[in-house]
């Protein structure tokens, strides 16, 4: 078999740079050379596929991983039949983990047919020691495992994994390369990144989370909060704008606490003001906000901004002050409702969306009624509703009174119905108005249409050619069909 014959000729490494990102560029050259050898043996260019699970943070990480893979000579491919399949995993809820294990079985089948195939696993799930143990025991065909803290080292890890998988030292059946760090305070700038869209981009402004909501595994897998220097963020956005980007989404687990740990502290509101001044940038979005840290200063900036979009995602989690206390959310129902009132007074037409967890340990029918009460009072434009998932290692996992499954399911259904009814009533409020739309893509179903978004994030379909993609155009909203508008160029 070809697999037996092909042995990677290792490159003698001299003077590996000690500083980053230079060290990674050095390893990109090495990995590119290895990729060439493997492609030569295979007889065609190497392909890759990154499968992303979870949140916007992971989506942005996947763009960075893609940027490096393209730099070392891999070509992106749509399916998991690629020569390198990388799973960027999420672990916020248990079912996310189960999905990954299910798909690994399928990948192993593909690998049996392709001796040049490598499988990589990264992201939040890999920060859990039990997961890595399980993969080591039951999924030995995986070539590379790394976590969330050393993703900037991907080029180096990839070169090592290629050596371990195809080099002279490889061992039959176990050539797994594993590198997981517990935490880091390092932020490496200026590595390659490939954007999914040419006209909009996520921009990390901070990493990690210090909040330790009692149900949440994120602080354990993403580490302590650290903010990027404002000058680095501004430089990145300026470059993106020069490259055609008109909309940025500022990303962090809790953007409202941005800047507190910088040498020269700076608030999120101040950062937004600086970003607003970037010429050519048209729209600013951010995600996610924590109600305990959303300041009056920020509301004031949102009120006067011409670029901040009229959409705020403000996770509620529960409407019961008692449960919010147990969740360690550090706000109560009244504070949340006051905040919503203040925001709506400042930005009257803002769309509000939220996250809600049903069935947190100890949640009684009365507690749940408080959640429904907030939903009815706030009237969200949309809401993500989740069934509480027990995450080992979090304080909530050992709390008494876990709510029985059937009770949770019944509450979940009631909540979903309420949320959907309100969203349906609210949809269409802008019908008749002419508003700017950022056109994002050709419509999947009807190629005479293009699809874009309003400032408040609502979807609009309109007749138009693909040349409109990436442009902000004025659209008259003719009618609302459920959760999207049909419009016409004004
Ligand atoms: N169970 C259910 N939902 C959770 N979330 C976070 N942790 C859990 C959990 N253990 C939800 C929260 C958060 C969103 C991203 O995921 O609502 O805002
Ligand atoms: Fe998890 Fe809370 Fe941090 Fe959000 S703020 S990532 S819910 S711990």
Number of strands: 19
Mean pLDDT: 95
Helix- and strand-based class? alpha/beta
Low-confidence regions: none
Share of helix among residues?
25-40%
Brief sketch in words of this structure:
The chain has helices at residues 2-5, 22-42, 56-71, 94-113, 129-138, 154-166, 218-222, 230-242, 268-276, 296-304, 321-326, 333-346, 365-378, 405-426, and strands at 47-52, 75-76, 84-89, 118-123, 144-146, 177-179, 200-204, 206-207, 226-227, 247-251, 283-287, 311-313, 351-358, 382-387, 434-442, 449-454, 459-463, 472-481, 484-489. The protein is of the alpha/beta class and 490 residues long.
What does it look like?
- With 490 residues, this protein is an alpha/beta fold.
- It is built from 14 helices and 19 strands.
- The chain has helices at residues 2-5, 22-42, 56-71, 94-113, 129-138, 154-166, 218-222, 230-242, 268-276, 296-304, 321-326, 333-346, 365-378, 405-426; strands spanning 47-52, 75-76, 84-89, 118-123, 144-146, 177-179, 200-204, 206-207, 226-227, 247-251, 283-287, 311-313, 351-358, 382-387, 434-442, 449-454, 459-463, 472-481, 484-489.
- The chain has a 6-stranded parallel β-sheet with strand order 2-1-3-4-5-6, sandwiched between helices. The chain has a 5-stranded mixed barrel with strand order 15-16-17-19-18. The chain has a 3-stranded parallel β-sheet with strand order 7-10-11, sandwiched between helices.
- Strand 1 (47-52), helix 3 and strand 2 form a beta-alpha-beta unit.
- The radius of gyration is 24 Å and the shape is globular.
- The model has no long low-confidence stretch (mean pLDDT 95).
- 5'-deoxyadenosine (5AD) is lined by residues 92-93, 215-216, 315, 317, 355, 357, 386, 388-389, 391.
């Amino acid at each position: 078999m070809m697999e037996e014959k092909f042995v990677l000729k290792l490159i003698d490494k001299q003077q590996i740079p000690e500083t980053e990102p230079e060290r990674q560029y050095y390893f990109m050259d090495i990995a590119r050379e290895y990729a060439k050898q493997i492609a030569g043996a295979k007889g065609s260019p190497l392909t890759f596929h990154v499968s992303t699970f979870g949140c916007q943070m992971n989506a942005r990480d996947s763009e960075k991983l893609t940027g490096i893979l393209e730099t070392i000579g891999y070509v992106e491919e749509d399916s998991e039949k690629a020569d390198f399949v990388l799973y960027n995993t999420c672990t916020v809820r248990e079912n996310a983990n189960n999905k990954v294990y299910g798909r690994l079985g399928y990948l192993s089948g593909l690998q049996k047919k392709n001796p040049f195939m490598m499988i990589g696993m990264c992201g939040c799930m890999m920060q859990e020691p039990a997961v890595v143990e399980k993969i080591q025991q039951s999924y030995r065909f995986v070539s590379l495992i790394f976590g969330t803290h050393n993703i900037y080292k991907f080029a180096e890890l990839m070169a090592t994994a290629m050596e371990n998988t195809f080099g002279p030292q490889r061992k039959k059946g176990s050539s797994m390369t594993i590198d997981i760090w517990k935490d880091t305070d390092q932020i490496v700038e200026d590595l390659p990144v490939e954007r999914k869209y040419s006209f909009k981009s996520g921009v990390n402004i901070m990493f990690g989370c210090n909040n330790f909501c009692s149900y949440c595994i994120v602080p354990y897998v993403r580490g302590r909060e650290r903010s990027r220097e404002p000058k680095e963020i501004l430089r990145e956005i300026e470059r993106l704008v020069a490259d055609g980007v008109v909309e940025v989404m500022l990303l962090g687990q809790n953007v409202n606490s941005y800047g507190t740990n910088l040498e020269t502290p700076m608030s999120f509101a101040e950062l937004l003001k600086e970003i607003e001044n970037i010429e050519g940038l048209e729209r600013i979005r951010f995600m996610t906000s924590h109600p305990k840290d959303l300041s009056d200063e920020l509301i004031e900036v949102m009120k006067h901004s011409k670029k901040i979009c009229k959409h705020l995602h403000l996770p509620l989690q529960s409407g019961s002050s008692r449960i919010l206390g147990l969740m360690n959310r550090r706000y109560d129902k009244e504070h949340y409702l006051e905040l919503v009132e203040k925001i709506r007074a400042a930005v009257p037409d803002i769309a509000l969306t939220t996250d809600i967890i049903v069935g947190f340990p100890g949640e009684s029918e009365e507690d749940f009624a408080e959640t429904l009460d907030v939903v009815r009072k706030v009237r969200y434009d949309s809401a993500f509703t989740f069934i509480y998932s027990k995450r080992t290692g979090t304080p909530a996992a050992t709390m008494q009174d876990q709510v029985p499954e059937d009770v949770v399911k019944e509450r979940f259904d009631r909540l979903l119905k309420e949320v959907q009814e309100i969203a349906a009533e609210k949809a269409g409020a802008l019908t008749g108005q002419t508003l700017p739309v950022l056109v994002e893509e050709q419509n999947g179903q009807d190629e005479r249409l293009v699809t874009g978004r309003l400032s408040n994030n609502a979807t609009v379909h309109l007749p138009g050619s693909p040349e409109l993609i990436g442009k902000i155009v004025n659209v008259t909203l003719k009618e609302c069909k459920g959760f999207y508008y049909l419009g016409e160029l004004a």
